[in-house]
TrEMBL record:
Membership in a protein family: Belongs to the glycosyl hydrolase 3 family.
Reaction catalysis annotation: Hydrolysis of terminal non-reducing N-acetyl-D-hexosamine residues in N-acetyl-beta-D-hexosaminides
EC class: hydrolase
Domain Glycoside hydrolase family 3 N-terminal stretches: 1-169
Keywords: Glycosidase, Hydrolase
Official protein name in the record: beta-N-acetylhexosaminidase
Top-level taxon of origin: Bacteria
Molecular function per GO: beta-N-acetylhexosaminidase activity
Naturally occurring in which organism (per UniProt): Serratia marcescens
PROSITE patterns, alphabetized: GLYCOSYL_HYDROL_F3
EC number(s) reported in the record: 3.2.1.52
GO biological process: carbohydrate metabolic process; peptidoglycan turnover
InterPro entries: GH, Glyco_hydro_3_AS, Glyco_hydro_3_N, Glyco_hydro_3_N_sf, NagZ_Beta-hexosaminidase
Length: 241
């Protein structure tokens, strides 16, 4: 449903004001078509978008305010519409929970809990880990979620169903057992070579000031380009050790 928004969910929380009929005719239509095929998609990613026509319920934020629930945290959208109405039986995964649309309004614990409460199977990037010192954040979050299940705040049946869907997906793709196949079989595969040729031919140098490209500095050992500063910092921290 991102097509009719002007906000990037990396930095803010988008809102779609289409009617329910428009939603099913436009935004949901591709999903329905894919799910109705003989081979439905293995996974569906949810979006951090407010869609009042589909669910106008309110949810508490970390600041004490109430906002229209994002689709990622909406049980109406994730369970009632996606699973019950559209008949999707595969694995669902949230968009990254460290994106501005979510991180601005929810703590890491609340974000993960809300996603699981909606019926989503996998909470993507619930914590940001850019250094060894932050490595404990993930097991701490897992313990928190386990405690919320024990106290009845999260449905154990929902968690069990999610685990079963994830395990079935792994089994289907041969990811449960040890494989003796060398990684080079995949890395150097014809498909990867084709991908590289496509990537090489899809880039056009428009301006090359001072003839900096291609890089010629022989003293340069590594050049790693990342879309986000936090990723660069994380890589730098690891390489510095």
């Amino acid at each position: 449903g991102h097509g009719s928004t002007s906000t990037d969910s990396h930095t803010g929380l988008p809102r779609v004001d289409r009617t329910r009929e428009e939603a099913f005719a436009i935004d949901i239509a591709p999903y329905k078509q894919a799910i109705d095929r003989c081979v439905a998609p293995d996974m569906v990613m949810t979006a951090h978008i407010q869609y009042p026509a589909l669910d106008n319920s309110q949810i508490d934020t970390r600041n004490g305010d109430k906002i229209t629930v994002p689709a990622t945290m909406s049980r109406e959208i994730q369970t009632q519409i996606l699973r019950n109405e559209l008949g999707y039986a595969g694995v669902t995964i949230s968009d990254a929970l460290d994106m501005g649309a979510i991180a601005e309004h929810f703590s890491q614990q609340a974000a993960a809990e809300n996603v699981f409460s909606a019926g989503v199977d996998i909470a993507l990037m619930p914590v940001s880990i850019a250094s060894p010192a932050q490595a404990s954040l993930l097991p701490e979050l897992i313990r928190y979620i386990a405690e919320r299940v024990k106290t009845g705040h999260l449905s154990e049946a929902d968690i069990d169903a999610s685990v079963e869907r994830i395990l079935r997906l792994k089994l289907r793709h041969g990811l449960m057992g040890h494989s003796d196949k060398p990684c080079s079989n995949d890395v150097a595969s014809s498909a990867h070579k084709l991908e590289k040729r496509i990537a090489d031919r899809s880039i056009t140098v428009v301006i090359n000031r001072q003839c900096l490209l291609p890089l010629k500095d022989k003293a340069l050992r590594y050049f790693i380009l990342t879309p986000w500063g936090e990723q660069a910092n994380g890589i730098a921290n690891v390489m510095a050790q």
